[in-house]
Write a structure and sequence with these properties.
2 copies of one chain form a homodimer. Chain A is of the alpha/beta class. Helices cover about 40% and strands about 25% of the residues of chain A. In chain A, a hairpin with a 2-residue loop joins β8 (about 230-240) and β9. In chain A, α13 runs antiparallel to α14 (about 375-385). Chain A is globular.
């Protein structure tokens, strides 16, 4: 067994989540890569020695956050020819060129998927899209806190202050939410994306930004009247032979791919003539999601991602699965119709969630939604129902995917 | 200059689009990879010799489609230790194991991003997600033809036949649409995704599927009544220690990430406890989109995707850009208010798209949307408007992104 030694800098929420996840997934990572990942050492505020940890590592994960001492530590790891994985958007948006130059000079990998977009793999997709397409524009909802607040204001009509308070209660906003609500966090992320997508030097200081602190319920009401959706949108785009990078509250037309991104989700749309547009969306960064993005980077640094599936495992194919169903019956309005249908469903263990009768007399229709049940049981019941004499046409069945939370 | 020689099998719509795109992007690919891509030979129905083309190539692109002779050609290319890029879902969903085994035995890359999801990079994201997360479920709208037809039925109330006819007229459906409308095409793609995400042997023959041919406008009306969206959904999920793969018309709850995927778009949602869910969406396969996905695979085969941005290029940062704007004014209802506001906007070259007055007398509000204009001009106009004596509060300005087509 060959070990792949990971030095961990920082042991806060994300750092400890990453450490647990690495241990939890070590067997599978070893099966995929042929190398067993091990923590070579952990640097916290009060313990651990940077030089020793870097020397003992093949790769260093930086999860301290903020500019210093993270900048110094990352540069020292790169200077020692160690791969680096970081989630540090403040560092990269401010000192990106210095870090990228150091990684290039050292000939090592620098991966930072977790710095932008939570679990949404936007960094990889831009890297790989670039190879084949010329990107014209990137739009992003890259701050989950502000998207949660705007969604709550829209959904429940609460004020900005109430929505912020709710976000804080749920852990979606920090006690000091300044960086998020002023748009500065989103500006840092857009600087990183713009540097990547367009190749130009972009620092967070180059990004004009405006936050959501002054938005009112009325603004949201106006958006609705106009059929628009109010979001904090980051934009990086080619303009007149140059590049514009900015973050603003923005009304989006209803069919825009970002218009339906709600709650604490992040999403990024990449536009290019060759591909039209691709949108990626998923939960914004929580501790476990960020840890998962970091681990993905670590594994990719260990070996290049596979290009074909590994040899197959034995996993039996299941053909009879549970689903909720919609059932539509055209019936002659015989007394007792619903009772007979319900009896058959009940005998097969099918539980009715809702039923509506439309029409009267010979034109009556029953529309039912049933709870999740094994397909075989439901279809057996439908087969029996189809034989009932008062049915005017074959029962219509459509599967239903409902909210599970 | 070192050449990277690409043998092209098939010269139909996608093959010729790929050949043009490769020539168009050769300089940029060379700048990225250090290798200049060149077409080593083209095999068409009437010209070219397979053995010669394979012998002269570093990588073979198979765009013939269908099972034979594509299978034979791909196996021969792999047998000659050449990397292969293919968009052939029929081949991989039927003979995937044989092809994967051959690629593994030859120690070469096999890439097939273009086989599923159009430009949506779902194959890469699953490969890379797998490294760090255990996937529980994949849901996909993986057939653009059927999604276009369902969207048209929902949007305009036309019948299935009318929507199909419209799709054929627009090139979204083939003259013989059987493979698409029966769900078989989606079943093939779900077989490929399931093999990849869950590691189990899955052939298209293992996938139960149902198409959209029998759906009616009434089904769509019922969906709307229930707040649901009717889509052709492919599902691959772990169930009771096994795997279920299936394609069915399905009612989705409104907030499901696939519920708002409309027109000929494709989208895939990947669910895992570690990442919650990630959704990727974009246009389904057209010739140029598929060609772009194929080129992305070719470039990735040439060199592994970068992990950090290349040295920066000179691209000036533009701070004054065009945008459409929403402008909200609280005014005392003075005669001539609108005239004065309009005059100021007009002098700055700002063109009003719509204006609505709410309220009366001292409570009047004007809500305007203006066409795209340079931000500096619009903000200068707002500055002047803000000084007008009849204004009761500061003007409120929010950017607008509108439909551009």
């Amino acid at each position: 067994m060959t070990a792949f030694r990971v030095g961990l800098l920082g042991h806060g929420t994300v750092g400890s989540a990453f450490r647990s996840l690495l241990q939890e997934r070590a067997d599978e990572v070893e099966a995929t890569t042929g190398l067993r990942p091990e923590i070579a050492g952990v640097l916290t505020r009060s313990s651990g020695d940077l030089e020793e940890i870097v020397a003992a590592s093949d790769l260093v994960v930086e999860l301290i956050g903020g500019v210093e001492p993270a900048r110094d530590y990352v540069l020292r790891a790169l200077g020692s020819q160690k791969h680096v994985v970081t989630a540090n958007k403040a560092l990269l948006s401010k000192h990106g060129e210095e870090i990228y130059d150091a990684a290039r000079a050292a000939g090592v990998q620098l991966r930072f998927e977790a710095a932008v977009g939570g679990v949404v793999p936007v960094i990889r997709v831009i890297h790989e899209t670039l190879a084949a397409a010329h990107i014209d524009r990137v739009h992003g909802i890259v701050n989950g806190t502000t998207n949660f607040i705007l969604t709550e204001m829209e959904r429940t009509g609460v004020s900005y202050d109430e929505a912020l308070h709710e976000a804080q209660g749920l852990g979606y906003a920090e006690a000091d939410p300044t960086d998020d609500v002023t748009g500065r966090d989103a500006a840092a992320k857009m600087a990183i994306l713009a540097r990547l997508a367009f190749g130009a030097r972009v620092s967070v200081e180059d990004v004009s930004y405006e936050g959501i602190e002054n938005l009112t319920g009325q603004d949201i009401a106006h958006a609705r009247e106009l059929g628009l959706s109010l979001k904090l949108v980051g934009t990086a785009e080619r303009v007149d032979g140059g590049l514009s990078v900015r973050v603003h509250p923005t009304f989006l037309f209803g069919a825009h791919p970002l218009a339906s991104v709600n709650g604490s989700f992040n999403a990024v749309t990449i536009e290019s003539p060759a591909i039209t547009e691709v949108t990626l969306s998923g939960p914004g960064a929580g501790g476990s999601q960020t840890a998962s993005a970091v681990l993905g980077d670590v594994v990719s640094a260990m070996i290049p991602p596979a290009t074909l599936p590994p040899p197959p495992v034995d996993l039996p194919l299941v053909t009879d699965v549970e689903s909720a169903f919609y059932l539509h019956l055209e019936v002659a309005d015989t007394p007792g119709v619903l009772a007979q249908v319900a009896e058959i469903l009940g005998l097969q263990g099918v539980s009715v969630k809702s039923v509506v009768q439309h029409g009267l007399g010979a034109d009556a229709r029953l529309e039912m939604v049933v709870h999740r049940v094994l397909e075989s049981k439901f279809l057996a019941a439908v087969e029996l129902i189809g034989r009932l004499e008062f049915l005017r046409s074959r029962p219509r069945v459509i599967r239903v995917i409902e909210e599970t939370f």
